[in-house]
């Protein structure tokens, strides 16, 4: 009779498991014992870094990815990164060891007294098997939950004494053989109605988000729709992926995240079509009209929760790539004029230290066609969108929930997922400290990742928020140390504009180019 350990690894092998991302402890040792030689064990030195690596790896491969953490405290350390992964819809199967079942009523050291509560609400499903024999079935269910739309992290608690228990022979084969698919399309009547509204619109606009890039064929479908219908294209605010080439003539940049600011950016459009993004990830609170006067909004997304919570507009809950493909079949070539061309960028003069514009001026010509950019530094974001040309799908990854410590480990995960592509990580000097442990994994595996740390020696983003919120006396960013004063003198010419610093996400002007004056 096989043990639970044998049945579990037979199942994982049958499911095609290739990598395990882990920061283990004593409670995980029974699960990891006799680790199979054909599975790559990716060690990280902090749970947040481990999840960050697995996050981007899972997004790039599209496969449910196993993450093994150390009981309650390890899971707690990883929660910020799991929140990022949840917002990015990364299909992660997160496991954590649990103390011996016979001791749980005493809550001994390293026990998790309520294992399914701690990871919520950042996971789609949380479970601790009621019996040792249920571990393989629980993991099979977890892999399927993670992969079904909307994809996202799930959690399974694994008591450490389960793995030497006997279980039934032959149970893993039927568990592994099941095939479940979940991509959906709108009803034909809904697609026809959308096609009629788009055809009748005077000045429609397309807003794309991470979900379009994540859906197979979504990147190409967005380009085809923009070109056949002559649509200007914006990125949804705070998007974690780029679903449209940033060097395309129709590309307009990234929308600002304030309610009123976003509405102003879309002024003049009568129909706003959103593909693969929630409506919208607003922050900071900048009151105003949600939409410009006379505008309607229609969103296509595969996340019913995001569709339900949107404050306005109609929504089609469906795979955005499949929906756009179906829409293209119904639309005639438009007679609308193409979007106006944009004025050339004005490059600011050099100063004592490089500005964001100048950094991206240097990087832009060097960034390869098939490169991957992983970043959590969004100061000077307009400069990045203008100068870094992202021409293909799955080229850009950002911390989806805004949690720091993403860029360094995320870049490691990207390189592990697609080793043939060059990977660039961009982080600030402060945010790099949150995920610095990812450098160990990159170094130990000799991964050819390029890490760029932008140094301003202060909490610059909080300064921007402080100005906007008119708060004073807040610790951390109000330091008067000589180092901070020196940086302020050295960067008297600000990141992108000659009259003041540009702090994401507080920019009202999200793109430093505007359509040319027709006169």
| Fraction in beta strands | 5-15%
Q: Name the strands of the widest sheet in spatial order.
A: 2-1-3-4-6-5
Q: Report the strand count.
A: 16
Gyration radius over CA: 24 Å
Taking the sheet with the most strands, its summary is: 6 strands, parallel
Structure class: alpha/beta
Helicity range: 25-40%
Characterization of the model:
This protein is α/β, with parallel strands linked by helices and 519 residues long. It contains 18 helices and 16 strands. It has a six-stranded parallel β-sheet. Strand 3, helix 4 (71-87) and strand 4 (92-98) form a beta-alpha-beta unit. The longest helix has 17 residues, at 71-87.
Features:
519 residues, alpha/beta, 16 strands, six-stranded parallel β-sheet, disordered C terminus, single chain
Short description:
With 519 residues, the chain is of the alpha/beta class. It is built from 18 helices and 16 strands.
Helices and strands in order, then pairings?
Layout: H1 4-14, E1 19-22, H2 29-32, E2 40-43, H3 47-61, E3 65-69, H4 71-87, E4 92-98, E5 126-127, H5 135-147, E6 154-159, H6 172-177, H7 188-200, E7 204-208, H8 210-214, H9 218-229, E8 233-235, E9 251-254, H10 259-265, E10 271-275, E11 296-301, H11 304-309, E12 314-317, H12 320-330, H13 356-366, E13 372-375, H14 381-387, E14 396-398, H15 407-417, E15 423-428, H16 438-444, E16 449-454, H17 460-469, H18 482-490
Parallel strand pairs: 1-2, 1-3, 3-4, 4-6, 5-6, 7-8, 7-10, 8-9, 10-11, 11-12, 13-14, 13-15, 15-16
Helix pairs in contact: 1-5, 3-4, 3-15, 7-12, 9-12, 13-14, 15-16
């Amino acid at each position: 009779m096989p043990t639970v350990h044998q049945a579990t690894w037979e199942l994982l092998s049958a499911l095609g498991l290739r990598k395990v991302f882990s920061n283990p402890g004593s409670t995980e040792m029974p699960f990891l014992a006799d680790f199979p030689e054909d599975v790559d064990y990716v060690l990280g030195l902090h749970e947040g870094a481990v999840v960050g690596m697995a996050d981007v790896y899972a997004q790039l491969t599209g496969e449910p990815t196993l993450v093994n953490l150390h009981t309650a405290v390890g899971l707690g350390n990883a929660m910020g990164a799991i929140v990022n992964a949840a917002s990015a819809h990364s299909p992660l199967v997160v496991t954590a060891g649990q103390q011996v079942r016979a001791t749980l009523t005493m809550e001994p050291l390293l026990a998790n007294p309520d294992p399914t509560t701690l990871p919520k609400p950042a996971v789609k499903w949380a479970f601790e098997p009621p019996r040792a024999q249920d571990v393989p079935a629980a993991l099979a269910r977890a892999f399927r939950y993670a992969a079904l739309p909307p994809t996202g992290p799930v959690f399974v608690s694994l008591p450490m004494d389960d793995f030497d228990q006997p279980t039934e022979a032959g149970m893993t084969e039927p568990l592994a053989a099941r095939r479940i698919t979940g991509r959906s399309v709108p009803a034909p009547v809904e697609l026809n109605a959308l096609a009629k509204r788009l055809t009748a619109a005077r000045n429609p606009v397309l807003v794309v988000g991470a979900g379009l890039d994540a859906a197979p064929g979504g990147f190409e479908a967005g380009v085809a729709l923009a070109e056949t219908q002559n649509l200007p294209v914006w990125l949804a605010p705070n998007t974690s992926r780029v679903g449209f080439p940033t060097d395309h003539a129709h590309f307009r940049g990234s929308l600002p995240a304030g309610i009123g600011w976003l509405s102003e950016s879309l002024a003049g459009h009568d129909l706003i079509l959103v593909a693969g993004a929630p409506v919208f990830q607003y922050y900071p609170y900048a009151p105003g009209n949600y939409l410009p006067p006379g505008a309607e909004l229609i969103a296509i997304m595969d996340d019913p929760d995001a569709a339900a919570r949107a404050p306005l507009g109609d929504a089609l809950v469906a795979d955005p790539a499949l929906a756009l493909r179906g829409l293209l079949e119904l639309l005639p070539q438009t007679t609308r004029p193409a979007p106006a061309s944009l004025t050339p960028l004005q490059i600011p003069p050099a100063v004592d230290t490089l500005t964001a514009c100048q950094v991206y001026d240097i990087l832009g010509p060097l960034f390869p066609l098939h490169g991957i950019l992983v970043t959590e530094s969004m100061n000077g974001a307009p400069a990045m969108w203008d100068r870094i040309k992202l021409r293909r799908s799955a080229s850009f990854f950002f911390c989806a929930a805004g949690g720091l410590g993403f860029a360094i480990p995320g870049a490691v995960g990207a390189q592990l997922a697609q080793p043939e592509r060059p990977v660039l990580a961009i982080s600030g000097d402060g945010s790099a400290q949150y995920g610095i442990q990812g450098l160990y994994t990159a170094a130990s595996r000799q991964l050819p990742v390029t890490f760029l740390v932008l140094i301003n020696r202060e909490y610059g983003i909080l300064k921007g928020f402080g100005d906007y919120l008119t708060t004073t006396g807040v610790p951390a960013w109000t330091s008067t140390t000589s180092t901070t004063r020196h940086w302020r003198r050295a960067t008297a010419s600000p990141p992108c504009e000659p009259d003041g610093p540009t702090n994401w996400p507080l920019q009202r002007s999200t793109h430093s180019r505007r359509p040319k004056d027709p006169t």
